[in-house]
Amino acid sequence: MTNESLIRNLIRGSNQRAIQESVAALIILVVFTRLLSGSAVGSASYYGCLLIIVATGFIVGVVWSHALSYRLLRSHPASDVGFWRAAFHAQARLLRLVPLWYCAPFGFGAIVLVAPVAVEEFVPFAMVLGIFLVVCAGVVWLNRRAAACLSGAARLLTD
After folding, report:
1. Domain ranges of the chain
2. pTM for the whole thing?
3. pLDDT tens, 131-155?
C-alpha cells in the first residue's frame, strides 16, 4: 500500500468516525431531551439527563476537533512522512483515551440518571451499572483495536 492510499484511508476513517458519532449524538440528544422534559426539575433523573446532554456535546466536539480533512492531503504531501506519522499517532491516541473523554462523561450522567433513591432500587441500579460497564469495556476494546491498526499503518509509511 502506498503512502497516499494509507493517508486517504486515515482521512476517510477519521471523517467516517466523526459522522457516525454525530448521528449517534443526534439520537442521544433526542432521546434524553424527551426524558428531560418528563423529569421533575431538581430530581436525579433531571440532572442525569442534563449531564448526558452536555457530555454528548463535549464528545462530538472532541471527535470533530480530531477529524482530518481532505485539505490536509493538499497542504501536506504524502512525502511529508513525519507529519503523517504524527497524524496517525494522534488519531490512535484519541482512540486509546476513549475511557476518559467518551465513557467517563456518559458514565457519570448515567449513574446520576439511574441513582437509587430508595433501598429497593439498589438491585436494578447495580444491574444497569453492570450493563453499562460491559458496554464501556466493549467500546474501549474496539477503540484499542482500531488504535493498534492505526499505529500499524503509521509504521507502514515509507520514507
Report:
1. 3-156
2. 0.80
3. 999 999 999 999 999 999 989 988 8
